[in-house]
Amino acid sequence: MEQVLPIAKQFVAGADGGDAVGNGLVTAESDESVPATVERIKGRIRENGLTLVTTLDHAVNAASVGMELRPTTLLVFGNPNAGTPLMQASQTTAIDLPQKMLVYEDEDRRTNVVYNSPAYLAARHDITGQDERLDTIDSVLEALAGGDVNRSKADPSALLDGGNGVVTAAGGESVDATADRIQSTLQSADGISIVATVDHAANADSVGMELRPTTAVLFGNPKLGTPLMQASQTAGIDLPQKLLVYEDDSGAVRVGYNDPQYVAERHGITGQNERLATIENALRSIAIGQ
């Protein structure tokens, strides 16, 4: 029923955003506040012709359930011309797209901007033949982040050694039907909010490209996610949760999601095993429809 997809063991340029090394994150420090930095990045997103999908204020969501979190805001944005070829090369890349940029205030009150290194995504999803495109994406992300970026030279193979952290299960009769079923389940669940639904295939078609049916549903529950970010704020780049519904090259419908244990290892989160198990059980149940 389920599997963790194989990984590509490559060196990845990243910055250590938590206690883990080689976690594929690039970091830039901002001399402005979190809100001011967020607005600056939004402006640069518009200037570069990118589409802002959503802005998620993790700290506000934490406060809505009576929890505290230092200022932490996620920007989700994309460009089908850049992202579609990566998903054509490896469909599971869609679980990390659209692009994300996390702006947060750390314990020393410094404002940091972090994003996934495109080289990390290539290694995680075994993308080949896209080096020039990945370099272009990296340059754009660096410009959006602003300032001098910090890239660790650590080898992430220890993180990826047990698999790339994408768990997949069999879906339903079609991508649309499975995505509808998942959204209906989420809408009826207490404490869960759907943040966005991204039809990657429709976005590809809008720029004259083809992609097999591929839909990502982003959703969250602050009561479960906030403690992970309290343990390591960079976990906010992998939250909210995502369920990826796609038709693979054999015509089978699959549902994929990030293994919570992988996310914990990536961001150096400890002492949350019970919560991680709860999240894993919920994701599996929603994915397979039980």
Topology readout:
Elements: E1 2-4, E2 25-30, H1 34-47, E3 51-57, H2 58-64, E4 72-78, H3 80-89, E5 99-105, E6 111-116, H4 118-125, H5 131-145, E7 149-150, H6 157-160, E8 166-170, H7 175-187, E9 193-199, H8 200-206, E10 214-220, H9 222-231, E11 241-247, E12 253-258, H10 260-267, H11 273-288
Pfam families: DUF302
Domain DUF302: 56-118, 198-260
InterPro entries: DUF302 (IPR005180), TT1751-like_sf (IPR035923)
General description of the model:
Residues 56-118, 198-260 form the DUF302 domain. InterPro entries: DUF302, TT1751-like_sf. This protein is α+β, with helices and mostly antiparallel strands and 290 residues long. The protein has one domain (2-288): TATA-Binding Protein (2-Layer Sandwich), CATH 3.30.310.70. It is 39% helix and 24% strand. The chain contains eleven helices and twelve strands. It has helices at 34-47, 58-64, 80-89, 118-125, 131-145, 157-160, 175-187, 200-206, 222-231, 260-267, 273-288, and strands at residues 2-4, 25-30, 51-57, 72-78, 99-105, 111-116, 149-150, 166-170, 193-199, 214-220, 241-247, 253-258. The strands form two sheets. It has a six-stranded antiparallel β-sheet. A hairpin with a 5-residue loop joins strand 11 and strand 12. The longest helix is centred in the last third of the chain and has 16 residues, at 273-288. The radius of gyration is 18 Å and the shape is globular. The chain starts with a strand and ends with a helix. Residues 1-20 have low confidence and may be disordered.
